[in-house]
Write a sequence for this structure.
């Protein structure tokens, strides 16, 4: 289903939402290997643009409300969406995510937990989920920065940072203190990816 969606949607989306992807070289060693893609969150279009502009399938968490429309829900599922109830502790979604990672697949997570509104470059607070999944599944994290809230006929840039691991936390009890510490590392790496993107803009001037 993903290939079909990519085939029919790539060209119209490329025309409507022109997107440039930078840093693909950082993914070479992760081909056909499990990883978490940690991306800042500007709109519901973020995951769609990432899915259509990269070939290897990625699964991602999507709030259950997005599945109310059958057409939209079907499209999201074809692109790898995993339904989650954000109002409650969704153990089923958590198990599905760990199963995805242990099956050598890739999982896209928005560490901020929700969309960060506004046109500035500020990122929101990083939640515990990304670190928890990475530690439990023992997989690397790829920080990703999307440059703006996608708008029709305005170019969006998606930048892949260098993969990193949280192996110093493997085998330890995942209490809130440890997850805070691990989450700080995730936030730092995502911030570095953002800064690399901003520096690339400066070099062009």
């Amino acid at each position: 289903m993903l290939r079909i969606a990519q085939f029919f949607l790539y060209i119209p989306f490329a025309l409507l939402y022109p997107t440039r992807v930078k840093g693909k070289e950082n993914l070479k060693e992760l081909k056909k290997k499990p990883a978490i893609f940690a991306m800042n969150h500007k709109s519901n279009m973020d995951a769609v643009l990432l899915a259509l502009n990269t070939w290897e399938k990625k699964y991602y968490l999507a709030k259950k409300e997005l599945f109310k429309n059958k057409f939209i829900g079907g499209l999201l599922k074809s692109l790898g969406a995993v339904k989650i109830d954000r109002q409650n502790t969704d153990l089923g979604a958590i198990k599905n995510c760990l199963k995805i990672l242990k099956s050598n697949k890739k999982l896209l997570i928005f560490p901020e937990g929700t969309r960060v509104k506004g046109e500035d470059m500020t990122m929101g607070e990083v939640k515990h989920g990304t670190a928890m999944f990475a530690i439990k599944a023992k997989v690397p994290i790829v920080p990703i920065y999307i440059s703006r809230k996608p708008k029709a006929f305005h170019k969006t840039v998606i930048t892949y940072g260098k993969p990193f691991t949280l192996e110093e936390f493997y085998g330890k009890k995942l209490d809130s203190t440890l997850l805070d510490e691990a989450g700080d590392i995730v936030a730092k790496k995502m911030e570095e990816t953002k800064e690399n993107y901003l520096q690339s803009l400066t070099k062009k001037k």
